[in-house]
Every structure is written in structure tokens, then in C-alpha cells.
Amino acid sequence: MFSAKLALKTNSEHQTTIKISEGVSVGGKDLLIIAGPCAVESLEQMEQVARHLAAAPVQMLRGGVYKPRTSPYAFQGLGDAGLKILDAVRQRYNIPVVTEVMAIAQIESIVAHADMLQIGSRNMQNFDLLKAVGKTNKPVMLKRGLAATIEEFIFAAEYILSHGNPNVILCERGIRSFDNYTRNVLDLGAVVALKQLTHLPIVVDPSHAAGKRELVAALARAAVAAGADGLMIECHPQPEKSVSDARQALALQEMVELVHSLRSVAAAVGRHVPIVEPQRQLAVA
Amino acid sequence: MFSAKLALKTNSEHQTTIKISEGVSVGGKDLLIIAGPCAVESLEQMEQVARHLAAAPVQMLRGGVYKPRTSPYAFQGLGDAGLKILDAVRQRYNIPVVTEVMAIAQIESIVAHADMLQIGSRNMQNFDLLKAVGKTNKPVMLKRGLAATIEEFIFAAEYILSHGNPNVILCERGIRSFDNYTRNVLDLGAVVALKQLTHLPIVVDPSHAAGKRELVAALARAAVAAGADGLMIECHPQPEKSVSDARQALALQEMVELVHSLRSVAAAVGRHVPIVEPQRQLAVA
Amino acid sequence: MFSAKLALKTNSEHQTTIKISEGVSVGGKDLLIIAGPCAVESLEQMEQVARHLAAAPVQMLRGGVYKPRTSPYAFQGLGDAGLKILDAVRQRYNIPVVTEVMAIAQIESIVAHADMLQIGSRNMQNFDLLKAVGKTNKPVMLKRGLAATIEEFIFAAEYILSHGNPNVILCERGIRSFDNYTRNVLDLGAVVALKQLTHLPIVVDPSHAAGKRELVAALARAAVAAGADGLMIECHPQPEKSVSDARQALALQEMVELVHSLRSVAAAVGRHVPIVEPQRQLAVA
Amino acid sequence: MFSAKLALKTNSEHQTTIKISEGVSVGGKDLLIIAGPCAVESLEQMEQVARHLAAAPVQMLRGGVYKPRTSPYAFQGLGDAGLKILDAVRQRYNIPVVTEVMAIAQIESIVAHADMLQIGSRNMQNFDLLKAVGKTNKPVMLKRGLAATIEEFIFAAEYILSHGNPNVILCERGIRSFDNYTRNVLDLGAVVALKQLTHLPIVVDPSHAAGKRELVAALARAAVAAGADGLMIECHPQPEKSVSDARQALALQEMVELVHSLRSVAAAVGRHVPIVEPQRQLAVA
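The joint structure predicted for all components is written out below.
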């Protein structure tokens, strides 16, 4: 692990802040709250999400357009059409967006239409993809593999960093275990360790860890208390109708309430949930 | 899991508060903070701990006298002599104590000299021991097994409850995983799930999960934010000289600072870290 | 691990053979085949098993009388009455028997009525129980814990050995993993490693590992090829009516066929499946 | 799992045999033995391996030229130069070769110069890569992911099959667990299950599972006894000088001895280790 020169802290105060768009960054005092559906399903859906969450406030939208699905027969995402929807909503509501890149061939268009690239858990050690996003300078959110050690996770980030892109955000999203009451085990010990080892911002995704919506809010608060720099949470206008991961998505109003509940926890550990920016409020109104 | 009638909530508000000693209980608004060394080593050691932590404040002391050790050649605890030390400190400083019971033959004397029995992880499914402590009415803190599912954990509690003892406290202490940077993976998702499923108080032990002292404080704060009813944390007058688990014990002053840092996190989720009771301050002074 | 002096080989040829009863031993060239139901249910059941398996041949019968069950409301075994059934069958058919000991209080009667004590997975680190069986000189079959490392397994054996009992047999029975198609993952790599590290005989239980009867025979053959000294397999006169673990029990005829299929595999790795002894044939006839 | 139409058996006799090159196939009565170094290091190295193993006999050579390495600073393979070495040896010794494909851009040249494509564990759910190799008709050996369930493994194969390539071979190579004495846990229960569920040939890689060369031979024999259709084993002219995975590679002579020891195990389960073909012997001589 200790040969991962670029990912590791040079001293205990070393902490990188990454700018994602005008007024939105991650790694500083402000928490980054990312929310949205598992998959982009339609323009109407994404507009509903954007309008409802602007006041949460949520600083960034998520929505998958290329979807890594266990079965080849499951919905694979809207693809390019989904990316256009995402970009339209991003511009209309002046809110940055993140979406997953699954293949080198998708990088160029996602870089053009989104503010952050997500490397999913299944691709954490898709080294050619890591090298390729390392040659862009877009922020990259790298999700931890389902059974990746902390060392492997740091080295995966190092692949991106060493190819020239300094804008890497780590994302803990739960690891595989023997129990199946929760979908995965959220490893906040890894978050605490990573905050001490690396200078990179760390976002926590409690939705994929929990796999059950009723567990998400408490885990989100725990993640903030553990020192996470941000959260990524799945929510949907009609969770039970979500085309994927329906069981773990919050309703939009639950998402708003969750953000409210985070304020005092964030304050307790010296962090801050940013309030909505005037220009975005304008866009929504 | 759903045949574990006694352990499960009858409605969403159902929550049990267990009284441990005069003025000390767990499961209510007040968090229960338990601290102390892995093993009782001497009267001097335990008095140092008690004096230093009274003002933390810590509500309860821990200290193992019968120690479950991987190797038969490792220090097995002071046994009965250790139990007497624990009882002496408990009386002098007017502070309740918890210690591990490893065998049925030890129950009677531990019941006489301590305020809470601990069933360790390795004995979570030692069903004859569970039945035997179920026939006492001492509070029992049941630690989750190293690879126990949530269902198995609830049923282990049900063994105690169904034998007549309603005073069961669950303790999450980390589960086995593939990574070895942390000693175990603290499963706060299980804590959130257990708070929803059962009415029993839940204590979190971040020390055994982390295995590294520098990770303990942030995990303790995360546990409180997740909804834990209490914490059990290892600390030692000279951590590096601890006869066991030296790597994970906090120094006493670090323990005091940790408790202080918990106040605002507790408040953020509607909980409270109790202040020291006058009678104990008197005892210490 | 390397301080486990008594369990480890002193040189690469060091191998212990343990005598279980007249003509039955484990650790030598002959494989030890143990078979029988998860639980002793009735005298008729056990007689049916003994009669049918004598010609398999099976060298030893298993049958639980004290049963470690996840739920306190599940069948807990016939207890002492079951032990008497086991002893009656053992004498009538002149076949040794093994049964699980869950508590120190049960040791005396099991020692009197059975030929081998089994320590179950859940009690692998019930150190007081290990010490107590270490003070007998009955053969003890120690099953690996659900998430026990090889080091912990060896040290658990060392607890028994260091208390005076040299007759320890290790049993690999599958470990916990993230997949649930099989009940546990049979760890034959551990069997190979243990054969190299220790001089103790090693028995493999493919039934609890597989959890599905259709997987048992092939895993049994693999275990023999890996170098196991014996097998323990669940079978039942009417598997689907077994009071516990019904899904993994073989029918008696399947058990006979399995033993037949083992002969050539055993021979391929220099081992031997013993033929039935005349005196037992006599007993059955 | 049961929607994976193309990968699943239509009846219990359904078994696919895949032809790899003239006289070499997998899935029939003959076992496929693949051997060679972790990485292609030089022409001399590969020629030494080919000459030595022809008489083993080994039917196929392995050698990585594009290497997925945890650290970006570790040796990444010889790349195209390595592929040319592999092709030269393949032609000179008339022996088919397999090498790993890590990226879509490498498919064309590997298809031209090798007989089988390997998808590594880290790419088992790199769905775009699976789709791309699904559009070729080269045999593809798909290695199970480090923490992939049996269901996910079958669906990954289904991605390849459903894109038009019927020549998929599954490879079990060990899964992540809590123990670190072995590198991974070889899951032969999964091999048995997969043989029952799918009609695809299954190869076992005991080298990556064991991680220690002294465990490889016994695990290889166990895999054959469990019903595997082939083995892939790492070996090297000077194991201790291997640029990667040095600890798990067999010496060439050990490899030859291992193959010899497999003959009787194979015969015991109705399989066969093919003898060396005259034309290859000629090539070597």
C-alpha cells in the first residue's frame, strides 16, 4: 500500500478538495450530497427529481444511463438517450450530474455531458478503464469493489492518479459478507482508515450497502459522523416503480428529510450541509 | 427470525430500558458508556482507570478476568483474583462493572461480584451457557459471533430471554471479512436493522472491530449517529503495556476526549451523554 | 500458529493414528467412514441405519442427541434418552458411535456411552469445554468453527492436547461465505494445509458444507483425493422426514453407493476403504 | 439464475465439448491440462516450458502478456511483444495457448495469435468486455470473480453466450475469505454445483486458490475427483525467479509429476489424462 505515492497523505493535514462545478466541490468543510435514481428512466422522472431535490438541498444528481446488470436480459440503461436527458436536466436546473462509465468508448460522451464519471464496483480493477479515465481531467468517483481490500482500493485510485488525473473521489458502498439481511456491509472502518491514509475525498453510498430503504437514513448519519466528505443516495419519484434497485430507493420527500437530519450531525463533527444556491433556486422556480 | 417472539418489537415504539445499577441504565435517552482494559491486571491498574474515567464520565467499567484466548499458552486472565479486584474497585468508586463469563461454573461468582455478565463472541452460540445465564436475572451483554447472521444473533438472545431473563443487551463488535487492515468490519447496518427489529438495547464495541486505536473515536461517533444505545471501549493506563489487545486500547486521556466529542453527536440524534453523578465524584475524590 | 507445539508435525512423516474401537482407527491407510442421521430420532431409525450401513461398509455411526439449534424453539435433541438408543445400537451392531457434546455436564455420560466426542463448530472456541474434554482420554473430533482461521483451529486442538488428551481428530465442515447456493464453502485447501502442518487425523464433513444432498458424493470423493483421513456424512432412512438438516441427508442406499464410488479414488491416492468386519456382519445378520 | 437460458443444462445429460485446436478439446472424457507461467517473460522461458511439458503431457500453455496488477507500478506484462513470443512457441511446438484479454482493444490481436481468450477474475463483470468477446467465436475461459456468487458467474457466461459465442469455459480459481493461510478458498462445491447446473466445461485453477505451491498438487487431484473438466496450473523454469506469483508456481518437474499423479484419480471418476500426441512429440524432438 505504501508505494501508492500519489494517493497517500504526505502529512496528517493533507486533504484534497476537488471542484466539480461552479460552487460545488468535495473534500472541504461542506458535505457533498448526491442523490437521484438508480437509472435515468425518462426526462419527466429526472425533472421531478431535480425540482424536488433542489431545495433539499442536494448539490448533485446521479442517474445511470449505462447500467451494469447481473443478467444480460435485464434493463441495460437508456444509453446515449439517457445521457442527453441527464445533460438537459443538468443545464436547466444548473445542477452537476454524475453517471457511470462502463467502457472506454463511453468516456468521451460522458465527459462532454456530465460533471463527474463514476467507476462502478465491478470495474474497480478494470485497469484499462482506470488508465483511460486517468487521461481525462474530469472528477472520477471510484467505487470500492465488492471484495476489494483497502490496499487494492488505494492502488486502483493510484492507477487513475498516475495517468495524470488528480481528481479522484473514493466511494465506499458496502462489501460482501455472509449475512443477507443487508445487501452488503457498509464498512465505515474503511472510511475512517482511508481518511487517515489518503488525501482524497471520500463519499459514502449507504443505499447499495443497506439494500433496504428503511436503513438508509441512519447509515447516512453514521457515515457523516465517521468523517465522510459526502453521500450518494438513491431516491425516486415512485420508489416501488423504479426499474432497478426499487427496494433501496427513498421517496423524494424522505430524501429531503434525510438531508435535514444531517445538519446537526455534520455540525457535531465540524462539517456543514450547504444551503441551496440562489441561482439554482431560480432555475427551479 | 420471526419466531423469535420475545426479542422482537411488538410495535415500532417498543424499546426496553434495562437498569444496571442505581442511576445507570441502558436503552433510554442516556447513552451507556462502558470503558476499561481488555484484562484486569492489578488493583492499581483498575483504580487508575476508575479514578481517571469517573470524570469522563464513564458510567461503567469493563475488565476481563476469565479471558478467551486463541492460544492455550497465552495469558488466561487473573480468574477469581481478578474478580475480587473488580468488585473492590466497583465498591470503592461506586461504579458498576461488566466482565465476561466463559463457563457455567463461573456464573454464580460473577453474579455476586459484577453488575452485568458478558457473553463473548466465541460463545454466542454456546447454548448451554445462554440457557444458564437465562436462569439468572442479571443483565447480560451478548456479543455478536464473528460470523453470526442477524437472525442467529436474535435467536441467541431469544435463548436467554426464553429461559426467564429479560435483561439482554446486544453488542455489535465487528464481523470477519477478507480485509485485514481493520481487525473486523464494524457492521453498523446490523445495528440499524437490530434497532428496528428488536426492542433490546444495543451497545457497540468499536475497539474490537477496529483493532487499531486511531480508528476507535470516529467509529464510536458513527455508532452513536447510527442509533446505538451505548458504547464499550477499551482503554488502559499504558496501552502499549496492555497484556492483550494492546494495539487497540486508548490511553485514558484519549478516552476522556472521546466522550467529550460524543456529546454533540448524541444531541444531534436525540440522545444524551450523562454527566457524572455527584456520589461517584465523591467516591473518586 | 507455530507455538502450537503439540498439534504440529515434528517432521514431514509425523502422522498420528488414533484407535477408536476394536478394529476401527483413523489416521492410517484405512479411511474412516462415519455416517448416520443428523439427530437420533428413535431406536427403529438408528437400527435401520446400522443394519443398512454395515455392509456399505461404514465403520462408525453418528447421531446427535444434544443438538445445537439456532432457535430455542427448534427440536433440541432427545438428550439422555437418545444417548441410550445410541449405546444400544452400538452394542447390538458392534459399531462405534460419535455424538456431540455441548456442555461440560454432558461429558461423563457421553464418555460412558459413546466412542468419540464431537465438539461442534459453534463450540470450537468454547475453551472451558475444550479443556474439560482434554482431561478425558476419549477420541475427540473437533469441528472447525464457521469462520475460524487455520491458526485458530490448530490452537483449539492445542487446548485439548495440552490438557492431556492426545486423541484429537480435526474436522473440516465448510466455512461461511457470501454465496448461498451451497450452505458453506468446503475448504479443501485447509485440509491440504492441515495435513502438512499437523500430525492429527482429518475428517471431512461434506454434508454440512454442501447443504444439498446432490452435491455430497462428488465433494466426498474430492475430500479423499485431497488427502482426508475420513469422512462424516449425513444419511437417513427417509431423508425428507429428517427432523433437522433434511435437505442435506442422503438416503441409505445413496450412502452405500457413495462408499462404493470411493474405493477407486482412495486407491488412486494410496488409501483404502476397509471392508466390513466379519464380527459386525454377524451382528447384523 | 434460472433465466440464464443458454448456460443452463436442458437435461441432466447435457454437456458441451469445446474444441480448442486440432486434437485438443475440453468437456469430454479427456481432461484438459493447461500449464505455464503467470507471465510470459522471454522466448527462452516459454520454449523451456513448452519442451519440458510436452511429455507431461500438458495439452495447452498459458502465459500472461497483458497483466492485471494491483499496483500500477508493478510489471504490467510484455504486451504485444509477449503475444508474439506466445505465438512463436505455439507454432513451433504445435501446442495451443491461452492468454488474458483485459480490454476490447486487445481482442483482435489475441484472437489472431492465441487459441483461447481468458477473462480474468477482476473482469468477470466487465460487461462490455464480455459482450465483445461474445461477438468472436474463439473459446473463452471465464474466471470466477473474487466474490462472485454462482448465479453471477452463470450470468456472466450468459453475457458471452447471448452475444453469439457458444464456446465458453468456466474457471473456478478460489474466492475471498477471512483466512489468509491460503490466498483464496478453492470452492469445489461450486464446481460440483456448476457441473449440475450448466452444460459448459469447467476448469479449476488450484494455483491462484492455494497461493502456495506445496498445496497445489493435492488440490488439483481433488478438483479432478470433484468432476472438473480440466486444470490450469502455474509453473515456471525457476519458480523463485518468476516476475509475479512466484510463491505459487511449480517447478517444471513438479508439474510433470503432478500430471502423472492425476492419471489414477481421473480413471477413478471415469475421466482420462490424454497421452502426448505424436506430432507434438516430433515438434519437441
